Amino acid sequence: FLFDLWYDLSNRRRGVILLVLMQHGYLEKDMKLKCYHSGNEYEVQEVGVLTPRTVPLDILTEGTVGYICAY
What we know:
By secondary structure, the chain is an all-beta fold. About 0% of the residues lie in helices and about 60% in strands. It has no helices and 8 strands. The strands form 2 sheets. Strands 1, 2, 4, 5, 6 and 8 form a 6-stranded antiparallel sheet that branches. Strands 3-7 form a two-stranded antiparallel ribbon. A hairpin with a 6-residue loop joins strand 1 and strand 2. The protein starts with a strand and ends with a strand. The relative contact order is 0.30. The model has no long low-confidence stretch (mean pLDDT about 90).
């Protein structure tokens, strides 16, 4: 479930950051995401949680509220 997003303008230049609630399954770095509207595919560059800073994790699992960076 996607509930917010923003474009990262910091020095890290991570592009769009999505805030999500993982309801089913898992998501980890290097997995592919597909946008159903445009059909474009993106590779996940980073996943993690906010505490309130971004804390990278290896994997987002079911029930986790976190962020995704994908190009």
